[in-house]
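Changelog note: in this version the structure field was regenerated for every chain. One regenerated record is shown below for reference.
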Amino acid sequence: RIIAVDVEKVQRAKELLGSMQRRTTFMQLLGPGDDESVNKADSDLMLLHNKFSINSNILGNNVMSGETVEEENGEEISEDLCQVAFEEDRWHSFFPGFEILNTPFASDMIENRKCVELSVLQICERKLKAYLLNGVRCFMLNLFEGTQRDNQVLMVKLREAEISVSKEFGFPVVSTIVAKLSPRYQYTGALSSQFLQNGIKFIELEKGYKLNLTVNREYSDRCSMNNIYVNARFLLGDVQEFDFILIGEEIQLVVQCVCADHLNCCVASGGKLYAHMPVMFPGRCHRFHVSYEELEDLTFAREVGINVVVSNIVGTPAYLQNLEEAMAAMHCDGLRLYARVVLNEIQGCDGELNWSIKGYDGFLVELTAPTMVPDIMHLCPSAECFMQLAYGSKKPILFDPGYIDEQKLRVDPAHYFYTFYYPDKFVVPCQHKNQTRYFSLLQDAIFQQIAPVALANIPYCDHSHTGADSLAHAVVTASLEVHGVAIVVIGVTTRMVQKIAHFRPQATILFVSHLRSAEDYVSLYYNVTMLSYRTKFIMSHQRNIFRMAIYALAYLIKRKIAKQSDQVILLYNNEEGTSFPERYLVYKVDTVHFALHMAETLFPMAKDEKNSLRDIDAP
């Protein structure tokens, strides 16, 4: 429980800030009489205040009072000039309608489709805020590297960066964290940072050299000639003196002494030690049972609030059952379990991995390094069938295009859909080896060409019981026809977001919900951004939908995602008591009177009832 203390404190600060931002937004949109909670905590609104944020006026005017916006040279003035941040004021309004980002690097066109892999081996803290500012909402931790404390500190830094960016935006910022579990099979740890800084990629072990093979995770990211980490704590009890242990294909160690947390060994056959090399223990060791490191990682994820974990391999149905039983025993059965798949290693035509589509909640798809560089990415029919079934099941697919980005692998046009269309997120390292952005440019160009064709030509069948698939298909089609800039989904569950993301709309999907648990996984879906909206006050269904709609529009306008006369798709529950959105409308954005338009458009009424929403929300 001690592990989660710092994370809970930061999470509590995020919720407090989000509540203050919601109150401030509605006080500016609907007046101080709309939410009585403003009067209860008037002084608290200045807590966590950022001097570089514009808090005096959310959109520069009171939209419900009908105040006109001043015009100067045909341009709208959306902020009080006395309250404009320094970064905008110094440009003397030469670039109206644009925002100056304080980021060390420019953003890609697919930032919201990235999943940034963080590592304790690299300095990632400085880039966390820049990634969030650029639109990244998905991050990945490798729990095999570093200690639990190291990963906890990295996670706290990410949550603190969310708070910092949230204060600049004026709206809540939430992201999803995915944790990669330690492998069940045995591997060595990463080399010490001293070797990496000097450009040394391996250690030469000579015959007769004595060293320690340790299971202490303190050495998982700092292997050296004297101490080599291996994830084999449960196996030490089965190891005996004079046993042989193999590392890779060359190195052989002879056990001289068995201790509580390490083995004193002597090098019987030397060789080159790289990071993450496979280790082979004697046959009497139970190598295929759930490892101690897996249980540690599951417990860590549960305590710090990580909702998604990735198994190192797909395994077999028996492997999956064994892992699920271990998760249930550790009270981690509520976590979403993904599997890592090496796509171009799948062989044959028998669909050997088709069973995993129903067993796992999502997939991390990777590629193996080619033997000849460059080479064409070859996929067997089983690999193609796996990707088709994974996409058809509407489960998130995280794709690591590292070798394609390094131009070691080339994609055949026949495999464009498997590489550029089916994946929801593309995994990128925190520290880029090069800044060419080859894959980002390639993916964006190809996706723009194949997405409309795929929506029109892919065979479509409504498998839902409520017609939700047809509604999602209609929403995406409408967004393409009117060139919508955003699709706003107001709902209780994430099922509609999942269905809309399945059709790969080019517009941003903004999910507005009070569901706390959705923050932990909804950003894994294609092009989804979550806007948290939580309130303790009970109100009518129509008023609640109205407030969530204008809150979402205020966010889109403030972030300059939607501008005057842009088209936005709104999807919401028309009938009270339903948890599934069943109605959508296309709204032409009016940056001044959008709140008034929402009151009249969301729920059409008779003339004598037309002003009921306005009357109840009037200041």
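Spot check on this record: The longest strand covers residues 251-258. The chain has a mean pLDDT of 82.
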